Amino acid sequence: MNLYKLQIATLLLVGLNFVTVESKPKHWHKFFNRKDALETFEEERTEALETEASWRYGSTQSLSSDDEILNSLYVSAKVDLLESGYNDQSLYRPSTFFLDKEMRTPPTDVIYEIIKRLPKGALLHAHQIATHDLNTFPEFTLTIENCQYCENPEGDLILHYLDAGVSDPSEEFECRPCPQEGDESYEKDLKQLKKKLSMFDGINYAEATTQLIWDLFEKKFGPIGDSKKVWHVWKAFLEDNLDWMVADNVQYVEFRVGCKDITDRNGTVIPFETVLDYLQNRVASFRKENPNFYGVNLICQAGRVGLTDEKLLEKLDLAQRFSETSPLIRGFDLVGWEDMGRTLHSVAPVLLKWKEDTNSKLVFAFHAGETLWTGYGVDENVLDAVLLNTKRIGHGYALDAHPRVVEMLKERNVGVELNPISNQVLGLVDDLRNHRNKQLMDITHKPSSSNARTMSLFDSLSTRMIVSFSVADQ
Fold first, then answer.
1. Contact (Cβ atoms closer than 8 angstroms) between residue 384 and residue 368
2. Which of 155, 164, 213, 445 lies 20 to 30 Å (CA to CA) from residue 219?
3. Could you count the other beta carbons within 10 Å of the beta carbon of residue 198?
4. Residue 366, phi then psi, degrees to nearest 5
5. Other Cβ atoms within 10 Å of 284 Cβ, number
């Protein structure tokens, strides 16, 4: 064997693909170094996909053997769901508008059943007046003691629970005792009440502006808006809230509330401190009955639309006072339609001076970025919320337009309360696959909460946390 052949045999044996310059014949590199173009393409493609996968939230999480079994079942079911949805998008819920008929029935797939059984953890973005199930809530409201069904010629409807002569609506409304099951008018009146409470109201979303949608949304609180201010009704609503949490396997909830005094049915004022004491005692007993339920806390709120500096200071002082006397108060928020309300930048001088003057430790948990606008001030609420040391951001839909703010979320450990279904129903996104926050957890590597927000307004059983989780996951 000559030297040239010996070099070839040696190279083949050790698996090398280079040769000495002296012994390499013409076109030698094409034999040893050349990769098929498709092979190179596939290798680079695989590397890119694996790198992206390594960036996703949860990619470094270790799973136990039991976790692996559940994960395998879940991933298999999810692949089946994606494939069926790809072939027929009418079967894929995130591509369907939430108020469409198909979405108003609970799903029956394996993913839904798995999520139904999983503990949901904390529901961090909820408004107490709207945390109910429209399948049962209207019937429930009609059975509460002292219920009056009041209508006016313009078609408005309210439920009135105060005694005769107390805030009497009879000058504007014609009232009668609320119908009960079996009464002749029961089905008709119940249907009317459901329509008044639900966002499923025949609205043409293809032509509706966000202003029209928000106007309708705020009207939906009309029939029961004042009911939450009546003591025995508030307590009944609380029981429905708690039962709903257990039914959907939620362990903890924070409600946004007005933190205001309420009245007894005879008009006697019930101080909010009394409300807090009752809530603390009731939740303590409820936890004994339901050991997997951790508890309830409250975030005091002020409406940002029409908010004056004086009103804001009043609300801040009340929240501070209640937080000093009750462990249930966890923070302060500004709520309502951001596009038409005070921006956080406009109230920052008031908030910062109040913090300085009072040395308050009250936590902020601001609604911010629930808007389609970019570069028009309202989207900058996400930045101002972080600069004001918010602990969480509610919605944060505009975060994708502010990459520096996303970095600040990571640096300051700020949580984001996602509300994908609410964002769709209130006109921010048509197809949830296009939701602007879908990569937020991957980018920040911080957990975000998926919330159901205002379930009783968004129609039917499928508005519960179970579906909120399953749709957000997909």
1. yes
2. 164
3. 19
4. -85, 140
5. 10
